[in-house]
Amino acid sequence: MSEDDTVDPSAIRSIALAPADVVDAFAYTQENPGAAVLRVTPPFHGRMRARIHVFRTDDTMVTGAIHLSPESVLEERAVADYPDLESTLEAADADETDAVRKEHAAAVEAWQERARESIRERVTLETDEGNQTVDLKLVG
């Protein structure tokens, strides 16, 4: 592998990730300001590891990292099934707010359990050379 290959994401054939990181990143982004992604950092090679990364400013142009959105890694049905707190709060009376928040937390926990089984087998990366599909391997 040449030195240029280590900074070229087209060298990537598979990305290992933890299902818990995927669902935690998705839930974080739904519930908080900022974003959580699955980050792959150079040097790049055939098998890479993605880890959860929370940020407010995208630094990929500086670091050369690749950010995978949790939505791109989760199956569509898992994304669509995420419990919606805002709609539930709008429909609730003011004195029910604490109970609604507790129910939502329990619903998110149950969603996370289900969503861990809803990781795609492949994801498409956007590289300078064009789109590239890579395998996702589950760890942990």
TrEMBL record:
One Pfam family cited in the UniProt record for this chain: DUF8009
Organism of provenance: Natronorubrum daqingense
Domain DUF8009: from-to ranges: 3-139
Protein name: DUF8009 domain-containing protein
